[in-house]
Amino acid sequence: MAETKEKSSKPEVKFEDIKFNEEGKTKAILACIPLIGLILLFVEKDDQFVRYYGGQYTVVGLAMFVVSFVLGIIPIIGWCIVPLLWIAMLVLMVMGMMKANNGEKFQVPLLYEYGMKIMNAV
Questions:
Q1: CA distance 56 to 51
Q2: pLDDT digits over 32-83, tens only?
Q3: Which end of the chain is more exposed for a tag (fewer CB within 10 A), N or C?
Q4: b vs e for 33-62, b when ≥16 Cβ sit within 10 Å of the residue's Cβ?
């Protein structure tokens, strides 16, 4: 029996394919807020720049939620580290917003690849 591969209805988007769109600048900036990024990831179908930021910051939000939960259980040490991680996430959000405003693609350290996978999966 010969196996055939089913082609998905939409092609996979690669990093090089993502182009800045001036009309979507505001949405790209808002996509740097994790919950709004998740919503825009599902709603925005045409603007890959907005989906790129939405995918990355959705992963950032999920990672922060999980890490905060796990570290929050650990007394004293975890309680000291969690606020620092939230400050780091705030810094990442501001950096992403500034890059989106300038039309640049910002790769969130360690989480960029997961954001691209989510962007292509949705």
A1: 9
A2: 999 999 999 999 988 999 999 999 999 999 999 999 999 988 888 888 999 9
A3: N
A4: bbebbbebbeebeebbbbbbbbbbbbbbbe
Structural domain boundaries enclosing 110: 23-121
Q: Provide the 8-state DSSP code for 14.
A: P
The crossing angle, in degrees rounded to 10, of helices 34-43 and 48-73 is: 140
Q: How far apart are CA 90 and CA 23, in angstroms?
A: 25
Residue 79 covered by a domain: yes
- 16 within some domain: no
* DSSP track, 24-75: GHHHHHHTTSHHHHHHHHHH--S-HHHHHHHHHHHHHHHHHHHHHHHHHHST
Q: Record the tokens describing residue 20, joined without a space.
A: 């800045």
- Total tally of structural domains belonging to the chain: 1
Residue 41 within a domain? yes
Residue 68 lies in a domain: yes
